[in-house]
C-alpha cells in the first residue's frame, strides 16, 4: 500500500503518466461488469439470480435515497460501536493481565487461543435468553465475538513491550493504574489499535449475522427482508453498500492509526 | 519446583474453569442466577450425554466435517493456482493484492442469502460460503511463500540453466510449501467456522441446526450442551489441523 503511494506521488511530480496498475484495475472492473451483463442478457442463469446491471444501479439509487437505509444503518452502527466498546474494554483488560504475567498467560491463554476461532454465532440462542430479542442480544453477540481478537492481540503486544520501559515504571514506583496508563498503553499502541481494527470487523459481522437470524431492524434485517421478498437487485445493492461501508471503516481505522503512529514517533 | 513451573499453569487453567462451573452451580442453586436462563452445569453435563446419545451426533458431525473438507478442498484447488497466477503476473499482483486483503476483512459470510437463492437451501450453499471465506488467506499465503523464496535458491536454479517450469517445480514451489501449508490451515479453519455458522443460520446440515432445534424446544441444558459440543469439536478440529500441518510441513 505504502509503496504504491510513494510511486504515484513521485510520478505526479514528474508529470502525469498512466499507471499500468490503474489500467489493469480498470480493465478487471470493466471486464467483470461486461461479463456480468452478457450473462444476464444471455439468460443462461436465472435472470433473478443475475439481474442486469441497470436494474442493480437503479436499485442502488433507490436504496441510497431511502431513509429506511439510514435508519437501519444507524441501528447497526450503534450496536457495533457499543459491542466494540464492551468487547474491546474486556479484551484490553484480559489481554493486559494475561500478557503481563507469564503464569496467567500460560494458564488461560490456550483457552482464548482455541476458543477464539470457534463460530461465535452458535451462542446466539444463549444471548437471546440473556439479553432479549432486541438490540441487547446483537450487542452481546458482537462484543463476545470481538473480545477474542482484542484480548489475544493485546496479550501479544504486552509481551513485546521492551522490559526497560517496565523497569522505568517500576523504578518510579508506579501504581498498577499508572503502569497501564503511562507505560503499557502508550508502548503497545500498535497491537491495541490493530486488535481494535480486527475487533471492529468481527463485531460488525457478529451484529449483522445476529440481525439476519432474529431481528426487526438493522442492515442484516434488511438483507433478509430482501431475500424473503426475492428482490434480488435490491439485495445486491444492499450487499454492495455493506461491503463498501465495512471496507471504508477498515481503511479509515487503518489510516487513523498510521497517522497517530506517525505523530507518536515524532 | 520445576514440575510446578511446568504443570502449574495448566492446572490453574483447568482448575479455574472447574471452579467457575462450581461457582455458577452454587449461584444458581442459591437463586442468585435465574435457573431458567442458565441451566445448572451439572444438568448440562448430563444433557451432553443425552445429546450425544439421542440426537444422531455422528451423522451430523460427518455431514459438517464433509462440508468443511469439501470447502477446504475447493479452497486449495482454487486458492493455490490463483496465488501462483498472482506471483507470475506481477502487474496483476500489484493491481489486486490489496483487493484480496480487503476482501479478507469484509463480512463475506453475509452474502449467504444470495447463495441461498443461487444454490437453494442445500449443502452447496454451505460449501460455497466456506470456500469463499477460506480463499483469501490461501491466495495471500501462496503469494507470500513464493515471493519469499531465498534468492540464493533461485540463483542455484539459474546456474543449472533450469527452464521456467523446472525452476518452478523443483525450486520455487517446494520452497514455498511451508508457507502455503500455513495458508491452507487458516483457509480450512475459516471454511470450518463459516460452514458451522451458516448451518446454524439457515438451519440446514449437521451440527449447526442441532443448536437451533434444541433451543426451539426450549431444552436449555441440551442447548448449552450442544453449544459446548460444537465448540469442543471445533477446538479438536483446530488441534488436528495444526498437528497435520506440523507433520506435513517439511523441515524448513
What amount of the residues of chain B lies in strands? under 5%
Low-pLDDT residue spans of chain A: 1-12
* Oligomeric state of the chains in view: heterodimer
- Distance between the first and last residues' Cα of chain A: 22 Å
Radius of gyration of chain B: 23 Å
Tell me the total number of β-strands of chain A: 0
Task: Please count the helical segments of chain B.
Answer: 10
CATH topology of the largest domain in chain A: MetI-like fold
* Domain module tally of chain B: 2
Major sheet details of chain A = none
Distance between the termini of chain B: 35 Å
List the helices and strands and how they pair.
The complex is a heterodimer of chains A (about 270) and B (about 250).
Chain A: H1 2-13, H2 20-42, H3 53-65, H4 67-100, H5 102-115, H6 124-131, H7 135-159, H8 163-171, H9 176-187, H10 189-213, H11 219-229, H12 232-265
Helix pairs in contact in A: 3-12, 4-5, 4-7, 4-10, 4-11, 5-7, 6-7, 7-10, 8-9, 10-11, 10-12, 11-12
Chain B: H1 2-30, H2 41-54, H3 57-88, H4 90-105, H5 112-119, H6 123-147, H7 151-159, H8 164-202, H9 207-216, H10 220-248
Describe the structure.
The complex is a heterodimer of chains A (266) and B (252). In chain A, helix 7 (135-159) packs antiparallel against helix 10 (189-213). Chain A is an all-alpha fold and 266 residues long. Chain A has helices spanning 2-13, 20-42, 53-65, 67-100, 102-115, 124-131, 135-159, 163-171, 176-187, 189-213, 219-229, 232-265. The model of chain A is unreliable at 1-12 (pLDDT under 50). Chain A folds into 2 domains: 2-46; 61-265, MetI-like fold. Chain B has 252 residues and is mostly helical. Chain B folds into 2 domains: 1-38; 45-248, MetI-like fold. Chain B has 10 helices and no strands. The longest helix of chain B is centred in the last third of the chain and has 39 residues, at 164-202. Chain B is elongated, with a radius of gyration of 23 Å. Chain B starts with a helix and ends with a helix. The model of chain B has no long low-confidence stretch (mean pLDDT 86). Classes of the chains: A mainly alpha (266), B mainly alpha (252). Chains A and B meet through helix 2, helix 5, helix 6, helix 10 and helix 11 of A and helix 1, helix 4, helix 5, helix 8 and helix 9 of B.
Amino acid at each position: 500500500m505504502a509503496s504504491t503511494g510513494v510511486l504515484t506521488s513521485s510520478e505526479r511530480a514528474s508529470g502525469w503518466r498512466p499507471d499500468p496498475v490503474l489500467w489493469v484495475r480498470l480493465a478487471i472492473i470493466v471486464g467483470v461488469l461486461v461479463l456480468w451483463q452478457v450473462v444476464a442478457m444471455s439468460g443462461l442463469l436465472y435472470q433473478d439470480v443475475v439481474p442486469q446491471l441497470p436494474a442493480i444501479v437503479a436499485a442502488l439509487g433507490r436504496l441510497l435515497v431511502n431513509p429506511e437505509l439510514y435508519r437501519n444503518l444507524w441501528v447497526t452502527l450503534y450496536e457495533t460501536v457499543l459491542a466494540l466498546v464492551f468487547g474491546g474494554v474486556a479484551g484490553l483488560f484480559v489481554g493486559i493481565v494475561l500478557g503481563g504475567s507469564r503464569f496467567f498467560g500460560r494458564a488461560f491463554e490456550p483457552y482464548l487461543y482455541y476458543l477464539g476461532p470457534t463460530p461465535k454465532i452458535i451462542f446466539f440462542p444463549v444471548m437471546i435468553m440473556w439479553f432479549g430479542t432486541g438490540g441487547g442480544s446483537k450487542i452481546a453477540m458482537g462484543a463476545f465475538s470481538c473480545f477474542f481478537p482484542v484480548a489475544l492481540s493485546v496479550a501479544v503486544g504486552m509481551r513485546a513491550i521492551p522490559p526497560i520501559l517496565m523497569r522505568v515504571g517500576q523504578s518510579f514506583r508506579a501504581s498498577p493504574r499508572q503502569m497501564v496508563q503511562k507505560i503499557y498503553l502508550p508502548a503497545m499502541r500498535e497491537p491495541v489499535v490493530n486488535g481494535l481494527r480486527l475487533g471492529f470487523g468481527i463485531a460488525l459481522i457478529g451484529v449483522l449475522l445476529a440481525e439476519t437470524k432474529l431481528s426487526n431492524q438493522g442492515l442484516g434485517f434488511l438483507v433478509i427482508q430482501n431475500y424473503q421478498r426475492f428482490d434480488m437487485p435490491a439485495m445486491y445493492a444492499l450487499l454492495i453498500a455493506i461491503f463498501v461501508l465495512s471496507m471504508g471503516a477498515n481503511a479509515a481505522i487503518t489510516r487513523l492509526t498510521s497517522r497517530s503512529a506517525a505523530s507518536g514517533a515524532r | 519446583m520445576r514440575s510446578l513451573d511446568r504443570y502449574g499453569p495448566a492446572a490453574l487453567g483447568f482448575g479455574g474453569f472447574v471452579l467457575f462451573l462450581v461457582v455458577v452451580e452454587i449461584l444458581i442453586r442459591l437463586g442468585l442466577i435465574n435457573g431458567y436462563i442458565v441451566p445448572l452445569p451439572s444438568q448440562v453435563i448430563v444433557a451432553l450425554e443425552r445429546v450425544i446419545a439421542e440426537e444422531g451426533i455422528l451423522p451430523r458431525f460427518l455431514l459438517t466435517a464433509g462440508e468443511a473438507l469439501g470447502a477446504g478442498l475447493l479452497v486449495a484447488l482454487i486458492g493455490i493456482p490463483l496465488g501462483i497466477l498472482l506471483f507470475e503476473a506481477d502487474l496483476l499482483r500489484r493491481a489486486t493484492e490489496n483487493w484480496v486483503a480487503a476482501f479478507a476483512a469484509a463480512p463475506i459470510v453475509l452474502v449467504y442469502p444470495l447463495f441461498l437463492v443461487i444454490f437453494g437451501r442445500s449443502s452447496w450453499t454451505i460449501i460455497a460460503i466456506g470456500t469463499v471465506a477460506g480463499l483469501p488467506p490461501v491466495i495471500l499465503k501462496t503469494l507470500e511463500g513464493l515471493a519469499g523464496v531465498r534468492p540464493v535458491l533461485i540463483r542455484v536454479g539459474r546456474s543449472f540453466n533450469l527452464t521456467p517450469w523446472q525452476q518452478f517445480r523443483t525450486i520455487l514451489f517446494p520452497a514455498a510449501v511451508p508457507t502455503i501449508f500455513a495458508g491452507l490451515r487458516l483457509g480450512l479453519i475459516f471454511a470450518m467456522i463459516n460452514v458451522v455458522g451458516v448451518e446454524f443460520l439457515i438451519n440446514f446440515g449437521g451440527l449447526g441446526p442441532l443448536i437451533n432445534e434444541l433451543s426451539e424446544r426450549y431444552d436449555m441444558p441440551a442447548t448449552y450442551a450442544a453449544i459446548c459440543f460444537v465448540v469442543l469439536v471445533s477446538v479438536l478440529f483446530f488441534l488436528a489441523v495444526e498437528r497435520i500441518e506440523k507433520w506435513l510441513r517439511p523441515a524448513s
